[in-house]
Specification:
The protein is mainly alpha-helical and 114 residues long. It has five helices and two strands; from the N terminus they run H-H-E-H-H-H-E. The longest helix is centred in the C-terminal third of the chain and has 14 residues. It starts with 6 loop residues before the first helix and ends with a strand.
Length: 114
């Protein structure tokens, strides 16, 4: 079903001038091959193989945790360097950027060894 009456005329234009074909409103069937719908794939949660000690973990270890990328790993290490070792896993919420929601995703993957 053409989305506008001038579709045939637009197709006849040289490719460099044919901008209307790309911007014309209407139904689109521009799905990536192999996908049956337009829903995005589910996000895969990172899960470390074993629990990580917050007081000994390096940046690469911390990045294995869900919701922790390079910037957050650096914040955790900087906090640990400035404030001393974590006394309990809940101290992780003192790091700027880690609230209750993120902490709840992390709690089962970390521990504190004194």
């Amino acid at each position: 079903m053409p989305c506008c009456s001038t579709r045939k005329a637009i197709r006849a234009l040289p490719r460099s001038l044919n901008t209307a074909a790309r911007t014309c409103p209407g139904p689109s069937n521009n799905r990536p091959p192999g996908r049956k719908n337009n829903r995005l794939p589910q996000k895969i949660e990172k899960v470390p193989a074993e629990k990580i000690d917050l007081n000994r973990a390096g940046p690469r270890d911390l990045e294995k945790l869900p919701a922790i990328g390079p910037a957050m790993a650096k914040k955790i290490i900087d906090f640990r360097r400035e404030s001393g070792d974590f006394q309990k896993i809940e101290d992780l919420m003192k790091v700027k950027g880690i609230g209750h929601k993120k902490f709840n995703r992390l709690r089962e993957h970390v521990f504190v060894d004194h």
